[in-house]
Amino acid sequence: MSLTRRGFAQTVGLGAAGMLSSSFVIGRGLEAAEFEPGSVQMPDDDGIIRISSNENARGPGPKAIQALHGTISPRAGRGYPPDHTNDLVTTIADIYHVAEDNVVVGTGSGALLAGAARAFCSPTKPLVTAAPTYATSDRMARRIGAPVKMIPVDASLGLDIDAMADAAAGAGMVFFCNPNNPTGTVHTASAVEDFVRQVMRTSPDTKILIDEAYIDYTFDPAVKTAAPLTQEFASVFITRSFSKAHGMAGLRVGYAIGQEETLSAITTAWNLGSMNTLSAAAAIASITDPGHIAEERHENARIREFTIAAFRDMGFKVPDSHTNHIFIDLGRPASEFRAACLEQKVRVGRDFPPMEQTHSRVSLGTMEEMEAAVRVFRQVLS
Predict the structure, then answer these.
(1) For the chain, which has fewer Cβ within 10 Å, the N-terminal or C-terminal residue?
(2) 116-151 burial: b if 16+ Cβ within 10 Å, else e
(3) With bands split at pLDDT 50, 70 and 90, how would you rate the model's confidence at 274?
(4) Are residues 240 and 359 in the same domain?
């Protein structure tokens, strides 16, 4: 689907006719900008299928769109502090059965990941993280001169829990992405709890950040949020994003759950941005609409199964994914695959060291986009 700037201007009114196009724009943010300067692709995309950033091609649910439309009024001009921000904190706290002091919101979860590394890591307090995994905390740790212990994923492309626990001794923070980006693999609630307890026994002052940005997509009932562990251990906190299943990448909403002292350290160390009225209203509507998330999970699974089956049919190894992207062993550099696909107007993911010479990440668009993309994949990989 292509949307020109003129088309976008015609959709920002309050009528229902603009809902599809405006949700499409809101659902696609600028993830690639942080890691690939110059690669930002605006809605005027010249027909390119963008499956390089893990965004939600279907955008926000109907109730979130209705909340946005309903919030656009002269009241939006009164925003110090913005309306709905406190209500969003209250809503999240109620859903997780925690106190409001145990919740902090930010403009996307990226600011929380960066702030956490800045708060808890230092030249004498390393960051422990997987390789490959999402790199925001890693980048911030290096920026402040903190050592980074990169623990390679295991043979199944899952996080190597035992090796990460061993490396955590004396560390400032462990970054534990579950499900993991880019591999798409996931660990059960019991495995995560065992890992946390192991680290807390040997290094109780080490903070553990469990990033659950993709957990709404998992199909394994044994996978559950680690939020209860945040109430038991002051050193444990989780982060969540509205950019994935909620389809709100362009609205920039994320949150963390943890104990008050831990969250206060993050907000003191780093500016999490100022939530705006529209984003907060949409986030409240979306998080209180579990039916939409269930539908989104089902549709994402349908598209994921189709795409994985296509690559396996071509003879490539693809692990089962619990996210809105897949990680394929192509046996060739990701850069070559990326360049060949872009010539055919399909943009796939960036390099993910140390596996950039063999593996490529492909995000999931709409079924129509993936059907077109698969035709290109078959052509460039033949």
Answers:
(1) C
(2) bbbbbbbeebbbbbbbbbbbbbbebbeeeebbbbeb
(3) confident
(4) no
Q: Can you tell me the distance from the alpha carbon of 181 to that of 153, in angstroms, rounded to the nearest whole number?
A: 11
Nearest alpha carbon to residue 358 among 314, 313, 317: 317
On whether both 109 and 204 belong to a single domain, the answer is yes
Residue 218 CB contacts under 8 Å (≥ 6 apart), including other chains: 179, 186, 322
Q: Quote the CA–CA distance of 168 and 129 in Å, as a whole number.
A: 9
Please report, for the domain that includes residue 84, its CATH number: 3.40.640.10
Q: Please give the tally of structural domains in the chain.
A: 2
Q: Of 228, 253, 287, which one is at a domain's C-terminal end? A: 287
Same domain? For 260 and 332 the reply is no
Are 130 and 250 in a shared domain? yes
C-alpha 232/C-alpha 229 separation (Å) is 5
pLDDT tens column, 16-34: 333 334 444 455 555 544 5
In angstroms, the CA 121 to CA 248 distance is 30
Q: What pTM does this model have? A: 0.88
Domain boundary among 287, 319, 350: 287
Structural domain including 49 reads 5-71+290-381
Are 102 and 244 in a shared domain?
A: yes
